[in-house]
Amino acid sequence: MTKIVKAETLTSLLIAISLFMILFLAYANWQSLQNKQANYLYQQQQALQIAENQLNLKAVNEPCEKMVKQNNLNFEISCLEQKIIVIFPLGKVEIGTAE
Fold first, then answer.
1. Are 50 and 43 in contact (CB under 8 A)?
2. Average pLDDT over residues 15-20
């Protein structure tokens, strides 16, 4: 007599669920890294715009701002003789001035 083998054994079901979870966790990790990078680039772009504004203030002999709050983020600004430093929550930007 021939034994009938079911295609849906417990082992194959557990393997399928495990493979799905590995793929899902890998995708979630990749998406998290993409979100972190996007947030960093967005804040860096804002910091560069703030540094550009400070360069323009320096060009017309106005004092630099010390802090700017933009989109609920605090940007600390240091204007030195040869560079402008903008510190933002995820990093900092340094711009050299050509004088």
1. no
2. 94
Contacts 24+ apart (CB under 8 A), 65-71: 70/46, 71/46
Q: Which two tokens stand for residue 16?
A: 């399928």
Across 18-80, the runs of DSSP E, i.e. the strands, are: 67-70, 73-79
Distance in Å from the first CA to the final CA of the chain: 95
Cα gap 75→14, rounded to integer Å: 50
Dist CA 7 CA 10 (whole Å): 9
The residue behind tokens 């947030």 is: 39
Q: Which two tokens stand for residue 4?
A: 């009938």
Instruction: Tell me what pLDDT residue 3 has.
Output: 75
pLDDT tens digit sequence for 34-55: 999 999 999 999 999 999 999 9
